[in-house]
Structure formats: C-alpha cells, structure tokens
Write a structure and sequence with these properties.
Length: 175
C-alpha cells in the first residue's frame, strides 16, 4: 500500500505566498531551469516537510540520478557545516574551523558536474538551516562564477516561499 502525499493546499489567507511561489518557480527566469530545480529540491529537503517536497516535485519534476547525487552531496554536507560554522562564530577557538576538521572530502574529490547548481543547493539549505556563514560563502562563490544578483535573489525568494509553504502546511495540520 503506498501513501499519497498531498502538496500544500493554499487558502485565501495564504494567496500572497502562493502567488510568490508560482512567480519565482515558473515565471521569473533569472535562474536557469537546472539551477532552479536543484535549489528548490534542496530547500524542500531542508524544510523536512513531505507536502513541500510534493509541491516541488509537482512543479519542477522528479530528480534524475545524477541530480540526486549532487543534491545529496550539497544537503548532507550542509547538515554538518551549517551548525559547525554557526557555532564557531559564537566561540573563539584556536583549533579546527576548516572543512578538513570535519573530514569532508574536497570539492574536487566529490566531482560535482554542475558547480553552480551545487552552490545554489547549498544556499537554499543554509537559508533554511540558518547557516549564514555557509550561506555567505556559497553566495560569494555564485557571484565569482558569474551569477547575477537577480538570479541569487530569485533563489532567496524561492527558498523563502518554500519556507512559507512549510508554515502553511503546518498550520493546516493544527488549525
């Protein structure tokens, strides 16, 4: 028996959030389709809400195997680096503070094929997790790779809209 997960059901009280989500996922084209898909899937996974994941899958499609691989690298790495570097910002330590200290393989070793999409995925996860040190680093990498402020802003709005969808989904379960 399989369980069907319903995507978020937007009510009249959340029509602004629905309009934002629709606009940034389907109408605005500052982000390429591949980067938009990777960012949205990463943010949805970080939201940890089945309805949000279903919404992204319905809007942007399922992931191909190579997309899953790169998405999982981004999400899994941010699950370590976000809390680690946030915590290091609160305490002054003379040890650690590097990716090597976390036993993470180098970026070259994991052989990511779409570096820009990877960084967008990391931006989305870091925004959801509040990992702003990583967020800043990956946003800077995107700029160095030639991404425009409009594209980065679209990524931020997609993530914010998905976080709103998560809140709306939660509201529906308790009210």
């Amino acid at each position: 028996m399989s369980v069907t997960i319903q995507a978020v059901c937007f009510s009249a009280e959340s029509e602004d959030q629905e309009a934002l989500l629709d606009s940034v996922l389907t109408e605005q084209v500052f982000l390429s389709q591949a980067n938009r898909k990777m960012l949205a899937w990463a943010a949805a996974l970080a939201c940890r809400d089945q309805s949000v994941i279903a919404l992204v899958k319905n809007c942007l499609g399922a992931l191909a195997e190579n997309e899953k691989r790169e998405l999982l690298f981004a999400v899994n790495r941010m699950s370590v680096t976000n809390p680690y570097f946030v915590s290091r910002g609160v305490i002054d330590l003379a040890a650690g503070g590097t990716l090597d200290a976390l036993s993470l393989r180098s970026f070259e070793d994991i052989k990511v094929t779409n570096e820009i999409a990877y960084h967008y995925a990391c931006v989305g996860v870091s925004m959801v997790n509040g990992g702003y040190n990583c967020f800043r680093s990956h946003s800077s990498s995107l700029r160095q790779l030639g991404e425009t402020d409009q594209a980065i802003d679209q990524a931020l709005r997609i993530t914010a809209a998905l976080m709103a969808a998560r809140q709306i989904s939660f509201n529906q379960t308790v009210l």
